[in-house]
Amino acid sequence: MFSRQAKVIKDGSGRRITTTARGYDVLRDPALNKGTAFTKAERAALGLDGLLPPVVTTELEPQLERAYAAYHAAPTDLQKHIYMWRLHDNNVTLFYALLQRHMLEILPVVYDPVVGEAIENYSEVMTRPRGVFLSIDEPQQVEAKLADFGAGPEDIDLLVASDAEEILGIGDWGSNGIDISIGKLAVYTAAAGIDPHRVVPVILDVGTNNEKLLNDPMYIGYRHSRIRGKAYDDFIDAYVTAAKKLFPKAMLHWEDFGSTNARRILSRYRDNASTFNDDMQGTGAIVLSGLLNAVERTGTAWTEQRVVIFGSGTAGVGIADQIRDLMVRHGLKPEEAARRIWLVDLPGLLTAEMKEGLLDYQRPYARDEQEVAPLQRTPCEPIPAAETRWPKMAALRSAAAAKGGIIDLATVVATVKPTILIGTSTTPQQFTEKIVRSMAAATEHPIIFPLSNPTELHEATPTQILTWTNGKAFVATGAPFDDVKLNGVTYAIGQANNAALYPGLGLGVVVSRASMVSDEMIFAAAQAVAGQAPAATPGASLLPSNADLRTTSSMVAVEVARTAIRQGLAREPLGDVVEAVRQSQWWPVYVPVEAV
Ligand SMILES: O=C([O-])CC(=O)C(=O)O
Ligand SMILES: [Mg+2]
């Protein structure tokens, strides 16, 4: 965001910025600051002559080298993360130039997985506050606080908001979760070229149930347990109403909500606002991209797949829904397609007898009583509701424990003989050697995606899965993993992380000003990503590399905008869609700064 003293001008002579600021006010504005790259004329006009060393660098190059050396001087990933965000506080252009040049190296430090560590250690990390902090204890202040951001109705393309109940796979982090909104927006810019000065990170603080935070004197958020029910819904409504009023052109992105709220919010607003839930729709779609390529490489039909999903929360059911919808595109009825998907969670296989205990969106996948009656039950320990983030699932597990046990993942895999196994459980090492080998014994090329974030929560590592299946499995993961070398083949591990999908989707929505984000637009994005993966040679990744995020995102944006136009949802008339996407993209280059 630019200070109120600056204006961006885009005309025939390109992009430039005018400002009434002078001296230190220019250097202290990270959107204006160019450091040694201010020209002699700019220094004179802006009052910078005495404030900068005499050397004038006309390009980013020497600054990039200095910044990269400083980045490497930071001893740990967390320190590198802090360095990057301090650089952002100082010079937004240099931050993105460095990130883009070393995308594979720095993206995991700025974003997932290191952003998780930063959120857990927020008091060490917090520097200059960035974004808008909205709190449920002051619901009448929502619009005024959003207006404090200082932007006009034409100025904002995108808001990312989180209530931080389920950050990545690490749970409830209250107001510290502002960093997930900030991190997601950085990916929008680095990956797709969304203008970083036209976005707003938002935290919707409704309290936290994280005892550690509630007892931490340094905690920055609202010190109260999570508020639910009508007050919560009214607060979300106040946010959507204010955001639509103040920034009528913007898309509203939802990130890392608890699964019930995530679903409810999306169904409430999806038909009447330009809005998108990344963990349900973005994760579902990027996993679908990987699966489209994996299933094609197995040479089998979509209507024959048997899918086991371990972890039936926001991401797991989001993925199930995308797979079901794809099977329907291939000719199955919705109920037939749902029959080909088995959800397993704390209570084991989700079954129809669990009825009331299940969440409404899990129910279409619950298995019939006749089907499950003969299956073996494994004794298990109950989990006290107070000791879990998922009390409903824990209650069902306790009920099953009392009745002889659960139908566990190993039993489900042995019985169902899945062709596809997906992990969104946030519990590491659950895809054991026994389970993976039993799957591989029944399927020529098992498709196995351990997705839980951050890295240490993955259900198995790619090395384990490829070793246990003798290189036959098709693997994609949630966090980045190194290549695996096995029997003379190098396996590149595709990252089925929503970072490859939502930035391009968002750009397509922004360019077309789509009035809503339709399932067709999301499917178009999934297909566009799949189409960017490398050719199907042995060991080739199922997904495009994150090194090519800019290209992937541009292709996605074009397909999404075209779909919006075809469906009559575009509010901006677009002639040449490719050109419109290209024109809209922001690049980290210095532009002239004029004193006015
Ligand atoms: O942020 C990521 O890397 C993926 C994601 O949305 C999550 O795990 O919640
Ligand atoms: Mg997320």
UniProtKB/TrEMBL annotation:
One of its GO terms (molecular function) is oxidoreductase activity, acting on the CH-OH group of donors, NAD or NADP as acceptor. Divalent metal cations. Prefers magnesium or manganese. Its EC number is 1.1.1.38. SUPFAM superfamilies: Aminoacid dehydrogenase-like, N-terminal domain, NAD(P)-binding Rossmann-fold domains. Its cofactor is Mn(2+); Mg(2+). The keyword Oxidoreductase applies. Keywords: Metal-binding, NAD, Oxidoreductase. (S)-malate binds at residues 453, 497. NCBIfam families: PRK13529.1. Belongs to the malic enzymes family. This is Putative NAD-dependent malic enzyme 2.
